[in-house]
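Purpose: get a first structural picture of the assembly so the mutagenesis plan has something to point at.
Setup: two entries, given in the order below. No constraints added.
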Amino acid sequence: MKITYNWLKEFIETGLTPEELHKKFFTLGIGVESFGPLYSEVTKVVISKLLKADKHPDADKLTVCEVDTGSEILKIVCGAKNHKAGDKVAVAVNGATLPGGIKISKVVLRGIESNGMICSEKELGLADSSAGVMILPADAPIGKDFKETYGLNDWLYEIEVMPNKPEYLGIIGIARVLSAALKKPMKVPEILLKEDPSSKVNDLAKVKILDKDLCPRYSARVLSGVKLAPSPVWMQVRLRSVGIRAINNLVDVTNYVLLETGHPLHAFDYELIKDKTIIVRKAKDGEEISTLDGVKRKLDKDMLVIADTEKAVALAGIMGGQVSEINEKTVNVLLESAYFEAVNIRKTSKKLGLMTEASYRFERGADYNGIIYALNRTAQLINGLAGGKIASGCIDEYPEQIKQIFITTRFERVNKLLGTNIQIQEMLDISKGLGFIVDKTDNKSFTVIVPSFRTDLTREIDMIEEIAVIHGYDKIQERFPTIKLQQQNTSLKIDELAKQSLVKRGLNEVINYTFMNKSWFDRAGISADNEIRTEYVNLMNHLIEDWNILRSTLLPNLLNNVRTNTVSHGNKNLKIFEVGKIFRKIGNQYIERYELGIIITGNTSDSSWLQKPEEAGFFYLKGILEGLFCDLNVKFEIREANNNFYDKTSSVELLANGEKLGSFGEINKKLLKMHDIKDRVFYAEVRLQELEKHINIKKNYRDLPRFPSNKRDISFIVDLEVCAGEIKSFIENIGAKNLEKVEIIDFYKGENVESGKKSVTYSLTYRDAAKTLTDEEVDTANKPIAEKVIADFKAEIRQQ
Amino acid sequence: MLLAKKKFNKGNEKQTMENELNNLYVNFDKDFEGINTLKDLENLRVKYIGKKGLLSSYYEKFGKLSKEERPKIGQILNSVKTKIETKLSEKIEVLSGAVTSEKIDFTMPGYKLPAGKYHLITQTIDRVKEIFHGLNFEIVDGPEIETDYYNFEALNFPKHHPARDMQDTFHVDGNHVLRTHTSPVQVRTMEKRPPPLNIISIGKCYRNDPLDASHLPVFQQVEGLMVNEDINFGDLKGVLKIFFSEYFQKETNIRLNPSFFPFTEPSAEVSVTCPICKNGCPLCKKSGWIEIFGAGMVDPNVFKNVNYDTEKWTGFAFGGGIERLTLIKHSINDIRLLYENDVRFLNQF
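Result (structure tokens, whole complex):
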């Protein structure tokens, strides 16, 4: 909703400057999206009289004009055709500025000096296009400033109207709240209708409401003999200022009154209404109407139309029909001012995808009593601008009185909820100022009748808010509540624990948008039968084409992160992770659960004079995961597996107590190529919510050893196929006396080791809790272990 | 005579011993200078302070001195021994390479230890949680795919009401949406728990908006709710004052302007005094105030939906964007930077 400072001033003298008014709006909850002076680019435009308009001697399309600006006679070369001597025009004199950064100065056009410019509406910023220069009314005062005279010195406020404040969709509603807040009277234009006693509206037209639920009230007037013409300059300027195109004096008036009262009106060509009968009814299924925007629309039986005895002539409360449209031949007019039910207007508007100034207001709740004022105001203005006669009387079909709403408000409740000390008298004054009628009061409460323009208010809390707004939120004192302390669960959740563990190990957290595109499954190597791909959650609507589903895997976004970082930004050595939700639809159930994705590429650290570059590969990633499991106190288990997005030779599944929780490995080259990534990339994913079942972060103290340990290192040469970890478990399970720990400390293949074989070194730690072990005791325990491994794994001892 | 001689000798002896010890040290110094190997150093040690070394003989002589003579000579003896030992041990370190006589170039960079970082948004979330924990608010959570009931109806957005146009909604199916705010968590929590309660919910929310410098289709919201027997509008101001003063680490004032949210009444737009400037800056558009949260007293219709007694209990709710809190605190001018995940950006915080 756009309003201007001067327009509002006609309804209330606030005594505030435009800037002060801007601030006041905010404290009243009237959000202002933009505010600023209008036509500030237009300067030094003077109302002048055209004295002469002669043909340019050297150019057919130009005229050489002389204009009287009141203070001087100027010679101006002009390119328009619609002007003639005697016209009043708007002249931008030398030094003037116009919209679009235009500056006027002396120029020579085809050999003739031109001092200034005769302006068109377009050049003044009053129209999108103009056929010629702007011809001003004959009584325009010569020598006066154009902006001043026609109300261009104004300020515009673009107001954001909240759904609960339909009254702010009209200037009167805004003036009313200002009046209550500033305690200044408001002025509503007086209605003085000159009705024609010789014609009676009831003889000229009839209105029948067939659906009184959807149209509780319908009023109409008939005007005859009107003369269609452009509206006067002041009205054109005013409409233009609030972004509405001026059309003619009939349509402009209905728009003008709409902005004043907030009530939508419609003008029909009376002659085009068959049998001069208005029937408000539901459409028939499949019934068609061509609306004013030139679109032929198919209706259904839930939509309300305004019809005559033959056809629909308008889409009720939304848009008129072409069939009854005001046209250049119109002389007799039927004016409609009606009240339509909000929900049905909204449903129809949504179904047809047609939102108009009218539907916007009706769906927010119109003023069922205000329709008569709006109707009369329109008739009065049309009569003033387009002449003709107003038939006496007004049709007012109102089959069933809309029930008034009463609200009782307790004085104590107001202050208790707001934390204020508002006096009873102030509450009553505020209510009256806002147009409520105080029905009765007692020592505890007061009851008001809700005015017809505030149908959104029904409850005590609504009144409390009204009082709070006018009293002023700034007067509410801050207080620090006294609360009863309650125990809270402050322990870290699995997602937080995982993040902590990984950040601690030097990884960077990333957070991605939770959307992805279906096509990314291919780019992430997820096969067609994978549940990630078959059970995704689809979005019914989305603005951004790339995002049409919710992510069912973290991988695609993480691969994008690698690409943008390494390929686009040159950030090598990436070690990043994301902990976030993924979404699935299984049957009719939506599943959302936390997953962890880790992706690494490049080196373990930036190289430096102290640090040699070392690739962050499979075992680096494995180390991160082992660390995570260790932090969560879960035994780390893996087994060989394969997934499409991994390289076939290096990927494993991750388990805890035999339950599969995820996987890790090297991303296959084909996928990387699709992302233009040249470096090797390693990825891990872990289902955190499933991991959570296995964690045990309560850790108990174990006695520290009091006696020294004794170590034995053994290197075994075994076949390449033998897993080092299997030998480790084997040794652990032998049950050797005092064997505390087995570690794999070295791996070697190559020179000095037969091809097809590898050497793995184990470090065995022995300790007795009660005494220091002798070398002999350790050797005795250690010897059979080596023998057993040799026997079971066809191993041999590698001599150092 | 013998006695006299003895006496004389003794006095003389003291003099001589003092000189001799001084000479011994001078000689040691001379010998020490030419030493270049650990072996020579060891020989030198044996020669001077070994069991049968030059200095040892003076300890024998020392035993024969009179009571009066002992303190002074003892002092000299010890000091010579200490000096020799110190020089020897310093030289051992040098010769064995334990210390270098070369000065280090301390301008060379240090070892680069890996440093992981929480995403900036996580840092903000953790900070917000911490502050509210301190105020005895409990963190609660809820689903991101929400039913129409919890996202709208229970929060007093009737079906077919224009209030639904306030939030451009992603629809998943006829009855499910991506939650447009964290407020459904309020309802879910209240359904399960009787009042009083103080809760905070933080998480991703969705609006079908275009992506630009100040809008994201996915963003994170923090939402708070306090319900008790005597909670009023002033309490809301008080709690927010504490929160923002703590968050910005600066005394912050709260300004409420009337607004509209279906689930609160009265509703307010919350502004805070600009955390950056005193007299106007681009961030606050020279007004000194920044709009930051939405808030209000819980609408009785919401309480009715969860069977709370609207006469007995009152409460306030507030909410705002985690991203906005982050941008303001760190002077970031484009919201999209937060989710580009450029490590050069992430590493700045």
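Chain A has 22 helices and 42 strands.
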